[in-house]
Amino acid sequence: MPTNHHRVDHIIVGGGSAGCVLAKRLSDNPHVQVCLLEAGPDDWHPTIHVPMGMLWLMRSKRLNWQFHTHAEAGLAQRQLFWPRGRMLGGSSGMNAMLYTRGHRQDYDHWASLGNPGWAYDDVLPWFRQSQQQARGGNAFHGAEGELHVMDQAQPHPLTQTFVQAGMAVGHPFNDDFNGPEQEGVGFYQVTQRRGRRCSTAKAFLTPDVRQRPNLRIITGAHVTRVQLSGHQAVAVDYLHRGQACTLHADGEIILSAGAVQSPQLLMLSGIGDAQQLRQHGIECLHHLPGVGQNLQDHLDVTLTHRCNRPVSAGLTWRNWLKGPWDALVYALKGTGTLASNGAEGAGFIKSSPDEPIPDLQLHFMPAALRDHGRDLRFLAQEGYTMHVCQLRPKSRGRISLRSANPTDAPLIEANYLSHPDDLRTLVKGVRRAREIFASDAWNGLRGDEMAPGAQVATDEALAAYIREHAETIYHPVGTCKMGPDPMAVVDAQLRVHGIKGLRVADASIMPTLVGANTNAPAIMIGERAAAWLQGASVLR
Questions:
Q1: pLDDT confidence band for 117 (50 / 70 / 90)
Q2: Residue 517 in contact with residue 12, Cβ under 8 Å?
Q3: Which domains does the chain have, with CATH numbers?
Q4: Which among 264, 259, 266, 253 has a CA at the least distance from the CA of 36?
Q5: Which of 174, 224, 229, 365 is packed most tightly, with the most Cβ within 10 A?
Q6: CB burial readout 118-141, b (16+ within 10 A) else e
């Protein structure tokens, strides 16, 4: 029989980008007892905090869930690698630390779908609340929050060339992609402090917060289901150090396990499509057919050029030789190669002039990279790489159960490129990227195009290259979508439809994918959920 722990007011399932925010905010009230359950370990490992440690984290089996999709029909039957953070801080502990929010129209669209309080002007104050902008505060940025956001200390010379090349072919320079206008090229701001990663665990679960008597953080706690009493969520079951445990909630239970595992947990708890649950021998306690549906993700394709000068930032023999010097510079100043987030150069551009807002995102890396940085031989060459990402895909996938065993990974069917418009936009995106690489700014640096290669020139050939090589850029959302329609899972205050005392607060609630990286929006979602749970009507 499960071991019954003490009762608490609120249980947070998942210590990631939104969960850490919730733990901090809810425990600000000393009269409220809060427990945060995280399946992974604490964020002690040094590779989490050194930005370039991302390369190691991609290979870790302890700190990375290492999910894979089902064979994708639109991508030559490939099973794509889906890394997700498995630690306190979640994916904010292993991402590229890019601080982007999306376009104003993304949030206005959410509101237009029947979600009052989610328009851009509604969410902007909550972005500002979390933020400690190194440049100082203004109408778009906060300067007193916990999450440190700063300019990159030393963008690579190749990254600077990328920005010059983008401007040379007509893209405006933009020094603030979260300001009045998103369009343009420039340098990403990053969630770092003095060259160290500022994950949500680092930002919000500071030592003084962790020592609060009303906050309990349990790592290594794999939640297996939410217990219901009728249509009221009352407790969670979880595995901890080989023991089955139960924790009761007198207040609310908040799922912040992410777009992959929040819907999985709802289904394991008997909340979801009745027919699918029956297939796995799970009693349907509440029929909610939208659970796991509406999966969206940013598909990304890379272009790589050989660099004619020995200046790139890959794992070349030259960089290995100066490794000890780089380590010393990083230790003393928090700058240099080890402080780089890799994806330094930014672009939000239009695939064609007819687009009303940017529909492509560029990530420039001053190194030859493929396969998520796991191909070390490719990374050892002198080169530079452009990631091209379509921002608002029309394709939809789903998360479903592989089995009733809560320790089995769920089935991920992203269904990439199932809508033909997505492939057409990516083909245009590759051509826009090639225009930038053809600029005179690259003269003397530009070597052969290693991928896809100059011979891949027609739309048909580019489409084939995309199907054979495109990968996720780690932004799954939408599987517990917010809205009033029959396929929605939560309402505009993130309460699960038809269940009392249960909310979802993570990227899974997004009805549509925002045109940007998703970490900052997930933090904002955590802020909003915490305020509703506290009954707050004003910002602090």
A1: very high
A2: no
A3: 1-35+79-144+210-295+398-405+476-540 (3.50.50.60)
A4: 253
A5: 365
A6: bbbebbbebbbbbbbbeeeeeeeb
Scanning the structure block, which residue is given the tokens 């790489």? 385
Show contacts of 168-175: CB within 8 Å, 24+ apart: 168/439, 168/440, 168/441, 169/435, 169/436, 169/438, 169/439, 171/347, 171/349, 171/436, 174/346, 174/348
- Residue 311 pLDDT level (bands cut at 50, 70, 90): very high
Is 286 known to be catalytic? Answer: no
Whether the link from the prior residue into 356 is cis, omega within 30° of 0, is: no
Cβ proximity of 451 and 431 under 8 Å: no
User: What is the torsional sign of CA 268, 270, 271, 274?
Assistant: positive
Nearest Cα neighbor of 367 from 312, 408, 308 is 312
pLDDT of residue 540: 38
d(CA 141, CA 63): 31
Dump pLDDT digits (tens) for 11-63: 999 999 999 999 999 999 999 999 999 999 999 999 999 999 999 999 999 99
Q: Where are the alpha helices (DSSP H) in 343-402?
A: 376-379
4: pLDDT strictly greater than 70: no
Q: What is the pLDDT of residues 67-106, one digit of tens each?
A: 999 999 999 999 999 999 999 999 999 999 999 999 999 9
Strands 232-240 and 221-229: antiparallel
Q: 260: how many CB neighbours lie within 10 A of its CB?
A: 22
pLDDT tens digit sequence for 221-235: 999 999 999 999 999
pLDDT tens-place string over residues 478-501: 999 999 999 999 999 999 999 999
Query: For 58, which DSSP code?
Result: T
Q: Over 50: is that where the pLDDT of 142 sits? A: yes
Burial class (CB in 10 A: 0-12, 13-18, 19+), 180: exposed
Rounded CA gap, 12 and 238, in Å? Answer: 12
The residue behind tokens 């979602």 is: 525
DSSP state of 397: B
Q: Which two tokens stand for residue 50?
A: 């050194």
Q: Hey, what amino acid is at 286?
A: H
Q: Which of 148, 156, 305, 475 is catalytic?
A: 475
Check: CB of residue 115 under 8 Å from CB of residue 103: no
